[in-house]
TrEMBL record:
InterPro entries: Ankyrin_rpt, Ankyrin_rpt-contain_sf. It comes from Diploptera punctata (Pacific beetle cockroach). GO terms for cellular component: BRCA1-A complex; BRCA1-BARD1 complex. GO terms for biological process: protein K6-linked ubiquitination. ANK repeats lie at residues 54-86. Gene3D superfamilies: Ankyrin repeat-containing domain. This is Ankyrin repeat domain-containing protein. The keyword Repeat applies. PROSITE patterns: ANK_REP_REGION, ANK_REPEAT. One of its GO terms (molecular function) is ubiquitin-protein transferase activity. It comes from the Eukaryota. Transmembrane segments: none annotated.
Length: 128
């Protein structure tokens, strides 16, 4: 981790992509880098929603790698739950297909409360 931090301190581009169009964060998820390294990359500004040439996001790669802890970290870091890859699968679709039941609550859109719906209806009505 010290080498990575030193490279970033010296100006290494945190979003440099390899021939697969993977960023260091994406590669770290797939290679099962330590959780603290992934945290540091995010703290240093790694794009949580970067996409590779197949439309895969870091979140999708975390699901495919079976890394629930990383899925949770990425969602907490505001990973977008909605993108689909070139096969038209979302991270949620992938978790369901692999029966990763513990990941599903992290990947499911949060339900909107009745109170929240009423609030938005009122705002929309006022603007009309």
């Amino acid at each position: 981790m010290e080498t990575m931090l030193l490279a970033l301190d010296e100006g290494a581009d945190i979003e440099t992509k390899d021939n697969e169009e993977w960023t260091p964060l994406m590669r770290g998820v797939v290679l099962e880098s330590s959780f603290p390294i992934l945290q540091k990359l995010l703290e240093r500004g790694a794009l949580v929603n970067a996409v590779d040439r197949r439309g895969q996001t870091c979140l999708m790669q975390a699901v495919l790698s079976g890394r629930e802890d990383v899925v949770k970290l990425l969602v907490e870091s505001e990973a977008d739950l909605t993108p689909s890859n070139v096969y038209n699968n979302t991270a949620l679709d992938m978790a369901r297909a692999r029966e990763f039941k513990d990941m599903l609550p992290h990947l499911s859109p949060k339900p909107v409360s009745l109170k929240e719906m009423k609030k938005w209806k009122k705002i929309i009505k006022e603007k009309m």
